[in-house]
Amino acid sequence: MGRKRSSPINVLSEWVKRQSMRMKICLGAMVALLALVALKLTIHDLNHFYIGSEFIHALGIIVLIYKLTTKKTCSGLSLKTQELTALFVAARLVTIMAGGIYIILDVITLMATLWVIYMIRFKLKSTYIKELDNFPLYYL
């Protein structure tokens, strides 16, 4: 029968696709700036964002451990960046001033990161390709 009307989101998406790259970049910058202003005006307690980001980071590493244990390969992972992450979390844990949930989340993240390093170095050493781990060592 008749053609269905597109949703406003689809119409907007098609309009953006038709714009030039310069216009898309300007629109993206304006949307990002408006989002930052909206966050600044509406959010007054940033602790929730910190706790959420730490929780998501710890959850991501736990999912990575699950993948390493089920797939039995660490191909594509950088051992050097995992070591840098562990170093950063350990330094933050040593210098942390607050207590409670912050320390718990940092300890979980550090332990999970150390487990990933252990898996790459010892358990899955045969699947680790050192030549492709081209993260510059002087960053460490």
TrEMBL record:
Recorded superkingdom: Eukaryota
Gene Ontology terms: biological process: protein retention in ER lumen; protein transport; vesicle-mediated transport
InterPro entries: ER_ret_rcpt
Keyword Endoplasmic reticulum: yes
GO terms under cellular component: endoplasmic reticulum membrane
Listed transmembrane segments: 50-68, 89-118
Gene Ontology MF term list: ER retention sequence binding
Membrane topology: Multi-pass membrane protein
Pfam families referenced in this protein's UniProt entry, alphabetically: ER_lumen_recept
Family statement: Belongs to the ERD2 family.
Name this polypeptide is given: Er lumen protein-retaining receptor b
Organism: Quercus suber (Cork oak)
Gene name tied to this protein: ERD2B_4
